[in-house]
Design brief:
Elements (H helix, E strand, L loop, with lengths): L1 H12 L5 H13 L3 E7 L5 E4 L8 E2 L4 H8 L3 E4 L3 E10 L2 E11 L5 H21 L5 H5 L7 H9 L4 E3 L3 E8 L7 E7 L3 E9 L3 H19 L5 H16 L5 E9 L4 E7 L3 E6 L2 E4 L19 E4 L5 E5 L1 H4 L13 H8 L8 H13 L7 E8 L7
Protein name: PP2C family protein-serine/threonine phosphatase
Organism: Streptomyces tremellae
InterPro entries: Bact_Sigma-Reg, PPM-type-like_dom_sf, PPM-type_phosphatase-like_dom
């Protein structure tokens, strides 16, 4: 406990850019660690990149020990003759950030020490999120190439790529990760409810990103005023119409989950597609299509209601996924999407979006990719997880 308490004090007192240095020094002193590296997953979830300007190549998420630890979210180790490499997931409430890799002497690698390393990795994840307010170091490590300005704006707007609570787990991903412009997702929860929005923006480049920014900020402003999702949609609709007079608008799906009952209220404002897997059955949930936000002045929105059950998986996809066409002219949403949802049934929510987008890339057989958004929600309900 003393080691962890000392480490926590040192990390919290460290300069934002020096977190890894402080952890390295602390682990060397406490456990004789000879090598400490922090790797962060890139925006496209393809590689793990070292933090701190190290002259190392990025590590594959699929073909490296560190990548396998990232995928399983379980500590892994590789034992040598005299030393052991420990690879420890760095995550915050289900949001997978990267891997802390620690090499230490074989005789020091006892279960108590490994348990301490796991807690240090957890501490580091939380401190990175705080440190990012004051340094670009960790964001720079996440990119394998330059983001477009529109993509930079969109990633700054997002809450996270994943989130876990007792009642649900969320995973989300946008592609092309380094050149997105209009699609977006957002969520917020308290002790009673989860509110989630998925936005399919129109247009290209900066114009699309600015439009989405206005829509998401307007929805957040209304949500934080404590009003229902129908009024949230109405106020965002007014904000967009006042700015663009109907020339630009956004398609949005708003959902409000009651955590105690699983009752969901939904507003479909010309929204992305909503699918549900229940048991072995995969089906699209048809909602009443209402006007996109900002299309007309003072649109009236009406919520619909449905029930989610423990074990249900909901999948939200934008037009860039649903309408993507194969070389033979088949839209992805016709049959391939349902197959992909079934094929990914054993994956946790955080990994589903990337897997579905991988299937989409095979379906399209082209490198050109419109904005494609996938959000997965696994519903556990209150009580024992399914």
């Amino acid at each position: 406990m003393t080691v962890l308490a000392d480490m926590e004090r040192a990390v919290r007192a460290a300069a934002p850019h020096a977190l890894v240095d402080v952890v390295r020094e602390g682990l060397a002193a406490a456990y004789g660690a000879t090598r400490v590296r922090l790797y962060l997953a890139d925006y496209g979830l393809t590689v793990l990149r070292p933090v701190g300007g190290l002259a190392e190549e990025a590590l594959s998420l699929n073909n490296s020990a560190e990548g396998r630890a990232f995928g399983s979210q379980e500590p892994r180790e590789h034992q040598g003759r005299e030393e052991v490499d420990h690879h420890l997931p760095v995550s915050v409430r289900g949001d997978r950030l990267g891997i802390l890799s620690v090499r230490m002497p074989l005789e020091r690698s006892v279960p108590e020490a490994v348990a301490e390393l796991v807690r240090v990795a957890d501490l580091l994840g939380h401190e990175i999120l705080v440190a990012e307010r004051d340094t670009d170091l960790y964001r720079q490590a996440r990119r394998v190439s330059r983001l477009t300005l529109a993509a930079e704006m969109q990633w700054e707007l997002l809450p996270a790529r994943a989130c876990e609570a007792a009642e649900y787990a969320i995973g989300a991903q946008l592609e092309p990760a380094y050149a997105i412009h209009g699609d977006n997702f957002d969520w917020s929860a308290d002790e009673h409810a989860l509110t989630l929005s998925v936005t399919n923006g129109m247009g290209k480049g900066i114009e699309a990103s600015l439009l989405t920014h206005l829509a998401v900020k307007a929805l957040r402003n209304a949500r934080r005023a404590g009003i229902g999702i129908a009024d949230q949609a109405a106020l965002a609709d007014q904000a967009l119409y006042a700015q663009h007079r109907g020339a630009q608008y956004v398609s949005t799906l708003l959902l409000h989950f009651d955590l105690a009952t699983g009752r969901v209220q939904a507003v479909d404002a010309g929204s992305p597609q909503l699918w549900r897997r229940r048991g072995k059955s995969v089906e699209r949930i048809d909602l009443e299509a209402q006007l996109p936000l900002g299309m007309f002045e003072e649109s009236d929105y009406r919520p619909q209601s449905f029930l989610v059950e423990p074990g249900d998986r909901l999948l939200f996809v934008s037009d860039g996924v649903y309408s993507a066409v194969s070389p033979h002219g088949e839209a992805y949403g016709d049959r391939a999407l349902a197959r992909a949802i079934s094929a990914t049934s054993l994956l946790p929510a955080a990994l589903v979006p990337q897997a579905v987008l991988g299937e989409l890339a095979l379906h399209r057989q082209t490198e050109t990719l419109d904005d494609a958004l996938v959000v997965c929600v696994d519903w556990f309900g209150r009580g024992v997880r399914v």
